[in-house]
Structures are given as C-alpha cells and as structure tokens.
Amino acid sequence: MAPVEMVTPATEAEALAELRRGPPEEVAIVAGGTDLILDLEERRLSPRRLLSLRRLPWHDHRWDDGRLTIGSAEPLASLEADPEVGRQYPALAQAIAAVGGPALRRQATVGGNLGRSAPASDLTPVLLVLDAEAELLGPAGARALPVDRFLRASRETTLEAHELIRSVRLPEPRPSSAYLWQRVRPANDISQVGVAAAYGAADRRWRLSLGGAPPRPVLVPEAAAELHGPRPKPAEVEAAALALSSHPALVSDRRASDEHRRRIASVLCLRALEAAVDRPAEVP
Amino acid sequence: MSGTNPAFRVNGRPVPLGEVPGDEVLLDTLRWRLGLRGTKEGCRSGGCGACTVLVDGRGRLSCLSLTRELEGTEVTTIEGASDDPVGRVVQDAFLEEVAFQCGYCTPGFVMAVTGVLREGGRLASTAELLRHLGGNLCRCTGYVAIARAVERARERLP
User: Fold this and answer.
1) Nearest CB to A187 within list B60, B65, B134
2) Is the CB of residue B65 less than 8 Å away from at least one CB of chain A?
3) Domains detected in chain B
4) Would you list the DSSP string of A61-124?
5) Which residues of B62-76 are buried (b: 16+ CB within 10 A; e: fewer)?
6) Mean pLDDT of B48-59
7) Cα nearest neighbour of A37 on chain B
8) pLDDT digit string (tens) for B82-128?
C-alpha cells in the first residue's frame, strides 16, 4: 500500500480543489488531528491523503460587537487564553477547560470537534445552547447551518464531500450561561453527562442541552420551556431539571448506567441554572 | 503546497521529513525512526501524558501529533531536556525529590513541567502549575513527590 500523503493547501481555493481530486473516501481532513489519529491508528479510516488545514487562515477568532466567530482550525487553548470568552460565553470557557489536558487543547479545535461529531463532546452541548452556526465552504460558496442541523448522529454530519468547515459563529453574547459535567476522573476523562444552560437576551428564552450520552448531544426544549424570564423561580428550575433528567437519551452504556445518568443530569441542571442565573444577562 | 525539502529539528538536529508517511505520529518517528526511546508510549490515545515532548517550547502529546504537521518546528525530547536551562532545573528537582517510582511517566512529566515553567510559570501558584499537569498520569501514585519537585523547580528557575 502506498504511504499516506499529507497535503497542505495554503488557500481556500487550493483546499477545495484538493477535496475534488479523487473519490471522497480517499481524503481525511486534519484540523488538530487529536481525534482523527485514533481512527487512523485503529484503521477505522484508511485515507490515501490527509488534507491539513494548517496553512489556511482559519486559526484565530474575532469579535464583532460581542459576537464571536471562531476559525475552525483554531486550537482551543487560544480561545482559553482570551478572557473575553469567559465573560461573554462562560459556558464555552467551562467546556473548553473540560477538554483533555492542556497539551491536547493546544491542538484540538472547535471545527475538528464538530466535523468529527464526537458522541461525548463537551463542546457540542454548549454550541447548541449558544445557537452556534457552522459556516461551511464548498465549490458553490459558503452556507451557514445551525449546529443542531449540522450534526446528524455519532460520527455523522451533513457536511458534503466537497465542503470544509470554515468557522463557527455565535450569534449573540450569552453571559447567562453555564456548562457542568460529571466524570469518573475530573482531569482528562470523558463526561458521563454534561448539561449546558444559556439564556438568550434577544428572545428572552432559555436553552438546555444534554451531552455525554449517546448518540449525540441534544437540545431539550421541553425542559427549557419550564423556565420563564432571566431569573426563573425555584419551582420552574426544579421542573426543568425533572424534564431534562427524563430525556430518553440518558441510556446505559459502558461509561454509566441510565439511573446514574438521570440522577446526575438532574443535579447538574439545578447547578448549571444556578450558575447561569448568578451571571445576569446585560439587558440591551 | 508542501515544502520541497520538508524538515524539522529534534533536540537541535535537523531531521528531513520527506520519507515520513502522512499518517505517522511523532511518537513513532522519535522512537523508531530516530531511536529516541526516552519518550514513552503509554495509552497511545492522549489520556496519560507519558509521551509528552516540547514543540517550539510547549508541551505536546507526541502520540496525537502527526509528524508531517510539525514541519518547521523545533521538537525537544527528554534526551534534549538537559540542554534547556529550565529542563535541567526540572530534572534536578525530580531527582532530589525522588519524584518517581517505576519512572515510566517521568519523561512525560519532566517535559510537561518544563513546558509550563517556560511559559511564565515562575509567577504561577503551585496549584495553577499542577492544573497544567492534569493530562499526565502516574500509576505509582507518586503525585506528592512530583508536586514537591514542581515547587522546587519553580523556586530555582534560571
């Protein structure tokens, strides 16, 4: 078998052209590579070419009136280093800090995390409650898709064969947000359950999501619907926790039992809402 | 596209990368291509930190790094640690505190500690420094001695 080739296009046009050179299954896209490498090692994927995003200008983030756009190949550590991320999107800062160890975060990217649709991703539950959009670049130009529609299932997305994720956009600051998780081991482990909560100042609605359980992180609108206004009443918070912890995604697998996941989800929901409400949204 | 003569440096020595397949990880390049066996293979999936090296002075998991992605960088392994003034201090501190039992995690810890101390670790609290070591495991439960070594190294930074 011929050795796997590494290609490193320097422009978007070159990268897109590279994607169209030969059948799609022959190419795998490398952002940080931390998750892809595991599939290469186990031969779950056997591409002939690796398409590296390393030379593309997609390695930083920018602010536009408090709204954040994240380059898809930006390492998590460089978002972690910007204190504004924690002020405008506390849930995102908390999720980033939960990913692997510091060395891994210098490599792992938001785009890679989305593109690989990792089932137990800590970032995805947060991207869901922040109403994040994936900006996809293809031969016909760019299109934007809400993360909820971009992700299909574990390891499955709606990304077309000739498309790349260029950026991830967060439409409005969500200072009233939080992400909490439960693991066997706090450092460098995979979450059994993750709960994200965020209050949208524009539409005055809450979002709640669940992660850590298969097949992929999900929004739980029936739980969020229990909450009214920026400072929900204790009874509303309890109703939301009950609805969240009754979600059918909380099943048993090798990492946790369904009963454990339900109890944890309920407690995390109460705590996440407490933390999010403690950071009241700035009313525009 | 890729440079005509792709290369990186390992412990100061230039290493051509033209023959390295795109899917080879740095851990294998170091251990099997370059014979630098000081870098240890632990979990091979980013969960233990035993394979930590420095890339341009910062800690990096060699098992999850594609070698060809590191063109143009400077890699420092445990074999090169004593040539780095901070690495030297860290090695001495680990020895003086006997911060190991079986020693398998030690190269990874020494490189991770060197990386964080090089990044302005002098000003960080011990708790902050230890948080940066959350990706490194020691199965002999030697963390108390490792924490003492980290503190000792910080106090002696050049």
Assistant:
1) B134
2) yes
3) 7-79 (3.10.20.30), 81-155 (1.10.150.120)
4) EEEETTEEEEETT-BHHHHHT-HHHHHH-HHHHHHHHTSS-HHHHTT-BHHHHHHTT-TT-SHH
5) bbbbbbbbbbebebb
6) 97
7) B64
8) 999 999 999 999 999 999 999 999 999 999 999 999 987 677 888 88
B21 in A contact zone (CB under 8 Å): yes
B116: which chain A residues are within 8 Å (Cβ-Cβ)?
Answer: 102
pTM of the predicted structure, to 2 decimals: 0.94
Burial class (CB in 10 A: 0-12, 13-18, 19+), B106: buried
pLDDT tens per residue, range A188-211: 778 999 999 999 999 999 999 999
| Better-scored residue on pLDDT, A278 or A178 | A178
CATH numbers and ranges of domains, chain A: 5-52 (3.30.43), 61-170 (3.30.465.10), 177-277 (3.30.390.50)
* Maximum separation of any 2 CA atoms in chain B, in Å: 49
Residue of A3, A30, A104 with shortest CB distance to B46: A104
The CA distance from A137 to the nearest CA of chain B, in Å, is 20
Q: Which of residues 85-104 of B touch A (CB under 8 A)?
A: none
Question: Which token pair is A13?
Answer: 């046009």
